[in-house]
Amino acid sequence: MEWYNIILQNSAPEPDGIRSGAQAVALQISGDKAAFYNCKFIGFQDTLYDYKGLHFFKDCYIQGTVDFIFGKGKSLYLNTKIHVLEQNITVVTAQQRDASEDNGFSFVHCKITGTTCVRGTYLGRAWGSSPIVVFAYTDMANVVHPERWNDFGHPERSNNMFYGEFQNSGQGSNISGQARYTKKLSDAEAKSFLSLGYIQGSKWLLPHLNTRSRHSIV
Q1: Which residue in 44, 48, 116, 181 has a CA-CA distance of 20 to 30 Å to 82?
Q2: What are 55-86's pLDDT values in tens digits?
Q3: What span, in angstroms and rounded, lies between the C-alpha atoms of 142 and 114?
Q4: Residue 46 bears catalytic tag
Q5: Fold for domain 2-10+30-210?
Q6: Residue 79 and residue 38: Cα distance in Å, rounded?
Q7: Cα separation of 59 and 162, whole Å?
Q8: In this predicted model, what pLDDT tens digit does every residue of 22-61 receive, in sequence order?
Q9: Catalytic one among 32, 46, 50, 67?
């Protein structure tokens, strides 16, 4: 399944804790082997429900506030812009992997921007017991919270969270002493997340993308 140049927007109002139905997705993708090219996903909380399956997002735009890329898909986001709307606390990802599962989110050559001037954006929080999220070669604006990652109120998950960062840039890429859960990846540790092979791309992506499937896409 492939989608090109589509805008998926949920017109529900921004959640305020009062109005019902405001927390709503722009897209839930649960099909396996799905690819999106130059698509836009626009919403507030829970914009993109990357529920399950192998997925590829390239040259896309994703906008939201809290947990706006969430689920247990095994997905590669390449050259995608992630835009955070202003709120007191914002969270990019809520990855739901449990220990026995094979899934995770890899963001490569992406860009994180935001309308907020306050460094209140977490890169992710642990919706599942053993989440995997990696940001590599990503340009991060100065919106990233100094702690960077959050245990979702479950401190018992802290030893099972794999939150990796590799060769990121921008004002928000500085890993301070407050970043308790960040794993600064070595070349060897990052390698598997930087390839189309992360999502078994050689088996299902179109031939013009398969030529580099066993190699780095950096």
Answers
A1: 181
A2: 999 999 999 999 999 999 999 999 999 999 99
A3: 8
A4: no
A5: Pectate Lyase C-like (2.160.20)
A6: 10
A7: 25
A8: 788 999 999 999 999 999 999 999 999 999 999 999 999 9
A9: 67
How are the residues of the chain apportioned to helix, strand and coil, as percentages rounded to the nearest 5? 15, 40, 50
DSSP 68: E
What the block records as the tokens of 187 is: 């070349």
Following DSSP, what letter does each residue of 91-142 receive, concatenated? EEEEE---TT---EEEEES-EEEES-SS--EEEEEESSSS-EEEEES-EE-T
Residue 178 Cα distances to 80, 136, 145, 186, angstroms: 27, 20, 9, 20
pTM score, two decimals? Answer: 0.94
Consecutive H or E run containing 37: strand 34-37
SS3 171: helix
Tokens 């070349």, residue? 187
d(CA 112, CA 164): 16
